[in-house]
Every structure is written in structure tokens, then in C-alpha cells.
Design a protein that fits this description.
single chain; 377 residues; mainly beta; Immunoglobulin-like; eleven-stranded mixed sheet; five-stranded antiparallel sheet; 3 helices; 41% strand; globular; nucleus; DNA damage
Length: 377
């Protein structure tokens, strides 16, 4: 395709605008948990930083839009997967990125009604949510261009990939800035003549320019460093299950990751992180106001968590900015459990409705592996 790849709302000279004019067409948010973080934050069990109350809808229309040519679009892949080194624009959040490697995940889409013969027992306390057969889907581990990170930070978290520290410090949490998971359909592939088209501290450590690669393969190849890092951290990076459900045009997607076990006061504490994306599939402007979580542990406990917003935000979902993505953490004193819940959504007329968070399992199946490594070089 001989069309230019255009990024909306991002320009390397954007610093000349004041903060009022750098709200972009995308965004993500701050992490949360119950740990001490080496790049700060994380309170609450089910995704809360200190609550921030808002009495009016935030403006969802970006100001100071700019267009910038970054390369030439390529044809979308209808079959197969994108290769390591593929440059792309994120179709929802708009940032520039590059593919490191693919993952194969099972998507459990509760919007797809399975045949009666395929139905499975519901997890404890799931209150009638459908259990569906998973379908294999391709996701990608990617690097985000650091020039774009400040402009997506209101809509999409750029430090969502976190690791527990080694066992010497049971409360430390490490984040890898500018690392993301991207679904196949969110990739808008393009090519560029630049030898370093993405700015990220890991770009040249993980990838090398290879002009001899034949078209249409991307001209970047994986270094041994990337292959070793992927192999060593595979159990901690890999996403295996993706859960999705839509309520009144608001789609919620959840991806859980097991992080490891820690000893605390003569007991074991198991930790997970989970990434949540909310998407407004309709045209009505709405705002997330509250969260309501139910957390069931194999030990037999059922915990309820209510709070204002998520990670200290009450995001507006509109046609111009339809999605919001964040990451949080949860711990159990049992090796497995389930989570589910609802988000309270407010319309512009002040009325509310609840959006279901699809139930997802928390499984600890990687304790025989070594602790994650590779966040320092």
C-alpha cells in the first residue's frame, strides 16, 4: 500500500506545546497493587490508587492535533502473523511500536454464545456469566516508542509489565517501561527507511538493522539478547488466557498473569497482575465512576472490593477516545482463585448502568521456574 502512515496527535516537537495542549487521542494509566514499587506506586488489592472524585465529565476531545508522516503503510495480514521487527501504529492508542515476538493466547469471548453441549460449569460465585470455549488468537510483545509514551499515559499504561523482585526483597516490584501486549487486529503495519525508527532503550539491544533481508520481511532481526531474554522470562511474560465480555456497547477485556509466590508471616502469598481494557463500541459518551470486585480464593474466602474509579482515574470513553487500559495486582493466600465484578458507568444525562467484568481464573502454575530476570542489562 503506497499510503503514508500518519500518526495523529504526536510530534517530536510537541514539547513546545504546554501541557494543556498535549492531551492526545490515546492514553493509559498508572499501575496499582499492594507492593513497594521500584518505579513507584501500587496500593490496593483490586486496582485502586487513592480515590479521585470528579463531579463533571472530562473533555474527551483532544486539542492541538498534529499530523506527522512516519512511513508507508503495508497491507494488513489477514492470515499468518507479523514477524519480529515489524513496525506498526497501534490502531486504538496511536503509538509507534515494533514487534518483538508473538504469543498464542486463548480468547474466551462471552459475547459468543456457545452451543449447549459446549457449556462448562461456572466458577464459584460467577453469578451466571457464560463459560465459553476459547479460540486461539495471536498477541504480540512490543516496544512502545518512548517519544509517544507521555502522550498515551492518560489512556494506556506504559509501565504495565511488572515483575516481582528476587526473594531477597519480598515487597519490591519492578516495571519494564514501554513494553506492551498488542492484539493482532490492533496492528497497523508500516515500513520506514530509518535505521532506528523506534526510540527505546532496549531497541538496539534487542534488534539489529539487516538491509539484506528480502522484502516484504521487516529489515530488523532479533539479536541473541532478545532470544535469551524471551527464553529466560517466558513463564512470566507469556499470556495464555484472554477474557472478553460486552455490556451495553462497553467491552471489557481482561488478561491475567501469574507473578509468583512470596513467604509472609509463616504463610504463602501468591501474586498476579491483570491488565484490563475498556472500549466504548458505541457513539454515546460515558464515564467510568466505580468498580466492584469479587475475589474468591481456593482457601474458601470471598472478598468484596468497592471503590471510586480505577487506579485513581475516572476515564471518559467517547468516539474520539474510545478505550482505556490499565494494569493492577492482586494477592491470595491460596495457589488459585477467581475474580469477577462490575464497573459502574455514567451517561451524560446522569443515569448509570453496570458493565460486567468477565470472570477469570487466577492460577499459579509456574512456581517450579526460576524468578524472572532480565530487567537489568
Amino acid at each position: 500500500m503506497a499510503a503514508c502512515a500518519i500518526r495523529r496527535g504526536f510530534l517530536t516537537t510537541v514539547s513546545k506545546y504546554n501541557r494543556k495542549h498535549t492531551h492526545r487521542i490515546l492514553s493509559i494509566i498508572e499501575g496499582s497493587s499492594g507492593l513497594e514499587v521500584k518505579r513507584p506506586r501500587l496500593p490496593c488489592l483490586a486496582c485502586g490508587l487513592p480515590n479521585i472524585q470528579q463531579t463533571r465529565f472530562m473533555s474527551s476531545r483532544p486539542e492541538g492535533k498534529v499530523l506527522e508522516t512516519v512511513g508507508v503503510f503495508e497491507a494488513l495480514k489477514q492470515h499468518g502473523k507479523y514477524e519480529t521487527g515489524q513496525l506498526f501504529l497501534h490502531s486504538v492508542f496511536g503509538y509507534r511500536g515494533i514487534v518483538l515476538f508473538p504469543w498464542h493466547a486463548r480468547i474466551y469471548d462471552r459475547d459468543v454464545i456457545p452451543p449447549m453441549s459446549d457449556s462448562k460449569p461456572e466458577p464459584p460465585g460467577s453469578h451466571g456469566s457464560k463459560e465459553v470455549k476459547g479460540k486461539t488468537h495471536t498477541y504480540y510483545q512490543v516496544l512502545i516508542d518512548t517519544r509517544d509514551c507521555p502522550h498515551i499515559s492518560q489512556r494506556s499504561q506504559t509501565e504495565a509489565v511488572t515483575f516481582l523482585a528476587n526473594h531477597d526483597d519480598s515487597r519490591a516490584l519492578y516495571a519494564i517501561p514501554g513494553l506492551d501486549y498488542v492484539s493482532h487486529e490492533d496492528i497497523l503495519p508500516y515500513n520506514s527507511t530509518e535505521q532506528v525508527p523506534i526510540q527505546h532503550e532496549l531497541f538496539e539491544r534487542f534488534l539489529m538493522f539487516n538491509p539484506d533481508k528480502t522484502t516484504p520481511a521487516p529489515p530488523f532481526s532479533a539479536r541473541d539478547t532478545l532470544k535469551a531474554w524471551q527464553e529466560k522470562n517466558h513463564p512470566w511474560l507469556e499470556l495464555s488466557d484472554v477474557h472478553r465480555e460486552t455490556t451495553e456497547n462497553i467491552r471489557v477485556t481482561v488478561i491475567p498473569f501469574y507473578m509468583g509466590m512470596r513467604d509472609a508471616q509463616n504463610s504463602h502469598v501468591y501474586w498476579w497482575r491483570y491488565c484490563i481494557r475498556l472500549e466504548n463500541m458505541g457513539s454515546e459518551v460515558v464515564q467510568l465512576r466505580e468498580r466492584h470486585w469479587r475475589i474468591f480464593s481456593l482457601s474458601g474466602t470471598l472478598e468484596t472490593v468497592r471503590g471510586r474509579g480505577v487506579v485513581g482515574r475516572e476515564p471518559v470513553l467517547s468516539k474520539e477516545q474510545p478505550a482505556f487500559q490499565y494494569s493492577s495486582h492482586v494477592s491470595l493466600q491460596a495457589p488459585s482463585g477467581h475474580m469477577w465484578g462490575t464497573f459502574r458507568i455514567e451517561r451524560t444525562d446522569g443515569s448509570h448502568f453496570d458493565v460486567r467484568i468477565p470472570p477469570f481464573s487466577l492460577e499459579s502454575n509456574k512456581d517450579d521456574k526460576a524468578p524472572p530476570a532480565g530487567y537489568t542489562f
